[in-house]
Sequence to fold (406 residues):
Amino acid sequence: MVTEKPSTETVFDWLRAVPDPEIPVLSLVDLGVIRDVAWQGETLEVTVTPTYSGCPATRIINLDIETALRARGIEKLRLKTQLSPAWTTDWITGRGREQLEAYGIAPPQPAGGPARCPQCRSENLERISQFGSTPCKAQWRCRACLEPFDYFKCI
Amino acid sequence: MSDPLFEFLCRMGDNTLVLGHRVSEWCGVAPVLEEDIALANTALDLIGQTTLWLNLAGEVEGAGRDADALAFRRDVREFRNLLLVEQPNGDFGRTIMRQFLFDAWHRACLSALCESTHDGIAAIAEKSLKEVTYHLERASDTVIGLGDGTDESHARMQTALDRLWPFVGEMFTGDDVDKAMTSAGIAPDPASLRPAFDEKVTDVLTNATLTPPESDFAHRGGKTGKRHSEHLGHLLTQMQWLQRAYPDATW
Fold:
């Protein structure tokens, strides 16, 4: 039970601790899917945008947001889904990009392919498949260290 | 005719639903693992888009039906998808050719729908367009790779094109539903999408060393629901059986 309404900055801080269910190295805030946090009277409204329209993680993301905020004592909560403007990988934060690479996933690049191998940093790369283990990723391989790796698709 | 807006939304949602289901039939049996994953992800995008279209259709209808009710509780004659998307997968080449022809139309259609006077439709189109642009890129690359590939892959792609071409025309035919949508600024006139489609298809097929048939004969009856091919009913028996056998089942 909270006696005072937490500020929206505080709520954002809480959500920074909620990991993406499929790429747990990344928080939901760093993934860029939390578009807004606002108080509508006594109700906390969190605006969430899906990454891919069919991504099965979307429902889990909503559940995880709700669980995290309930645990902080938020009682009146509304999750709003927003389709437009459509999610873009430009909304992944700088911190998020670093975390992805450290985890072994090459962050998205406007050029349409990874900049370097997340393992050995070589730029000698080849694409294996335009799709990968989740809707947001493609499969690439490093020709230098021969390791296959995930690339976060740029959309 | 029921509410044209409801009809239109069912057409959009049924296209992605039926094609999404068809493509998902490859899951676990595609020629190589990477293609299996690619097909499953494409199907996933399409089913996700279906949820958006059919939920909106349900809201517009106002009879308490949501996307699940529309997907699983309607029978063949109530489906409004194009005949192209209900055609069986055939071999891998035919599946890719069907995907390419649909993607080329789908991308042109969604691009126009981004300018819709209906905010909900414009938002779904904007979201879907990003995914479909990626689908079209992959389908184009694969059509070129297989068309301009070995003798066997070339022959199979040409056979696929010959077989599927008679289903292209339906994508650009209009009726009273389309007229109502066009005059309200909600959706484009289907015929207006043809130049962008032709440009893309000609470019890719030329690179793929494939030749479309000369005849422009077009099968019709899918988007109006008047005459689906026999394949759709068979597809529905698989797709709907669980909700038919155990209505409102959850897990």
In short: Chain B has a mean pLDDT of 96. Chain B has one domain: 4-245. Residues 33-61 of chain B form the longest helix (29 residues).
